[in-house]
């Protein structure tokens, strides 16, 4: 856009842009006012906003250095807007000032367009238009918010923006590569993914069914999601059972992508080594889910929606548990390498699946003991396969060992685990 100034007069381009931007903002305000009651309280129409923008530009070019005319015009507009707001409050009992603030932004566009790069003033226009048009969306979101939603957001901002920068980056235990900063950084990253999955499930995919619950839940915790789905499957009919197993497979599929994200964040080198194999594993899980859906009729999800778990996963106690597990696996990994070498570490990777496997994987990714990329990648895949195997027994246990679930659970999870073992053998063959 800046290239236009090379072929056309600067004043012409600026004036046209100012007029168009002001008109767009005015049209947006006009459209909203047509759907509001009490339209008589509005101080103007789309033309008013356009003239405000043009006025700001004219006053600016007449005194572009000291800006006395521009500031004077802004002061007069501010007085007029204050009188308008006083009348609205006293006679119509309307207290909103959104239109007035947008009008002042429109007046300021002249200075922004004339002095700032094109990407910046276009960004301003986009933000103003989006915030204006999304008013009803924000209202719906506010109505859906739980009482402690802002407290939860404040917690996440606290652990990521306050606690993390204050932590020292020095070893806690001598000779063991673990620092308060690295522990909390891993906690913040995992908590961020968990919080994002929660927001998607609650505000974006609110009307979704059991399969979408498996997808979104897998980004947070495949173990927790599979356990919840298994408990709910106890109360459905036999022909609905495969749908829950299909959702469990989708949770497993998303678990692989969650680990891909974590690996990419903490170690690009390991990511380049392991991503083809994890993608293959994810495709297998998705393929099993698709096959189950093909075999079954579509599920009526009306009853499931009312039972969805809307609890927020972001809690300080969860973060502290994660940090504790991270430290535990760091110490175990350190001494395993010293006394048992790579063989012991491979054994530990399978045992890690008995608990939350994420701290173990993140510990490996942060360069524990100077291990090779191939060893770390193999241990990550082994830990994930172990976790899936444990999840299979969790699903079987929490569904009440229901006979209708048994063949679906062991068949689906068995296919995924078997295929993943083949992928792991392929990895060992290549490396």
Order of helices and strands: HHHHHHHHHHHHHHHHHH
Helix % is over 70%
Cα distance, first to last residue? 51 Å
Number of helices: 18
Based on CA inertia axes, which overall geometry fits?
A: elongated
- Flag low-confidence runs: 298-309
Sheet-strand content, in percent, reads under 5%
Query: Can you give the mean pLDDT?
Result: 81
Rg calc: 29 Å
Q: Describe the largest sheet.
A: none
- Work out the number of β strands: 0
Which structural class should the secondary elements be placed in? mainly alpha
What does this entry look like structurally?
With 431 residues, the chain is mainly alpha-helical. It contains 18 helices and no strands. It has helices at residues 4-7, 10-33, 46-62, 68-92, 98-115, 118-133, 135-144, 149-166, 180-204, 210-220, 222-232, 241-266, 268-295, 302-305, 316-352, 357-365, 373-398, 403-430. Helix 15 packs across helix 16 (357-365). It is elongated. The two termini are 51 Å apart. Mean pLDDT is 81; it is low at 298-309.
In short:
The protein is mostly helical and 431 residues long. The chain has helices at 4-7, 10-33, 46-62, 68-92, 98-115, 118-133, 135-144, 149-166, 180-204, 210-220, 222-232, 241-266, 268-295, 302-305, 316-352, 357-365, 373-398, 403-430.
Please outline the helices and strands:
Blueprint: H1 4-7, H2 10-33, H3 46-62, H4 68-92, H5 98-115, H6 118-133, H7 135-144, H8 149-166, H9 180-204, H10 210-220, H11 222-232, H12 241-266, H13 268-295, H14 302-305, H15 316-352, H16 357-365, H17 373-398, H18 403-430
Which characteristics define this entry?
single chain, 431 residues, elongated
């Amino acid at each position: 856009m800046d290239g236009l100034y090379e072929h056309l007069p600067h004043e012409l381009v600026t004036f046209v842009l100012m007029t168009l931007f002001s008109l767009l903002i005015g049209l947006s305000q006009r459209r909203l006012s047509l759907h509001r009651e009490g339209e008589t309280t509005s101080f103007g129409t789309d033309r008013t906003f356009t003239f405000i923008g043009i006025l700001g530009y004219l006053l600016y070019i007449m005194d572009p250095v000291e800006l006395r005319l521009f500031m004077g015009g802004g002061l007069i507009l501010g007085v007029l807007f204050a009188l308008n707001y006083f009348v609205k409050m006293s006679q119509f009992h309307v207290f909103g000032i959104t239109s007035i603030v947008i009008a002042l932004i429109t007046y300021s566009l002249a200075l922004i367009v004339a002095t700032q790069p094109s990407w910046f003033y276009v960004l301003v226009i986009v933000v103003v238009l989006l915030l204006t048009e999304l008013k009803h969306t924000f209202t719906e979101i506010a109505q859906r918010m739980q009482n402690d939603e802002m407290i939860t957001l404040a917690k996440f901002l606290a652990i990521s923006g306050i606690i993390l920068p204050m932590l020292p980056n020095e070893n806690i235990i001598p000779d063991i590569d673990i620092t308060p900063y690295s522990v909390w950084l891993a906690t913040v990253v995992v908590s961020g993914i968990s919080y994002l999955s929660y927001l998607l499930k609650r505000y974006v995919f609110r009307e979704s069914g059991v399969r979408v619950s498996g997808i979104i839940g897998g980004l947070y915790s495949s173990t927790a999601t599979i356990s919840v789905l298994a408990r709910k499957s106890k109360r459905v009919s036999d022909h609905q059972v495969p749908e829950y197993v299909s959702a469990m497979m989708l949770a497993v599929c998303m678990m692989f992508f969650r680990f891909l994200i974590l690996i990419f964040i903490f170690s690009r080198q390991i990511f380049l080594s392991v991503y083809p194999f994890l993608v293959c594993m994810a495709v297998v899980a998705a393929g099993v889910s698709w096959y189950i859906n093909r075999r079954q009729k579509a599920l009526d999800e009306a009853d499931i929606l009312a039972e969805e778990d809307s609890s927020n996963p972001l809690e300080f106690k969860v973060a502290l548990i994660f940090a504790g597990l991270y430290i535990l696996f760091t110490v175990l990994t350190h001494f395993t390498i010293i006394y048992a070498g790579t063989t012991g570490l491979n054994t530990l990777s399978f045992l890690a699946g008995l608990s939350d496997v994420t701290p173990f994987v993140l510990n490996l990714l942060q360069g524990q003991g100077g291990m090779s990329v191939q060893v770390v990648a193999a241990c990550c895949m082994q830990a994930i396969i172990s976790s899936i195997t444990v999840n299979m027994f969790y699903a079987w246990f929490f569904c009440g060992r229901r006979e209708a679930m048994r063949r679906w659970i062991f068949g689906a999870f068995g296919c995924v685990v078997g295929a993943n073992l083949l992928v792991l053998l392929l990895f060992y063959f290549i490396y």
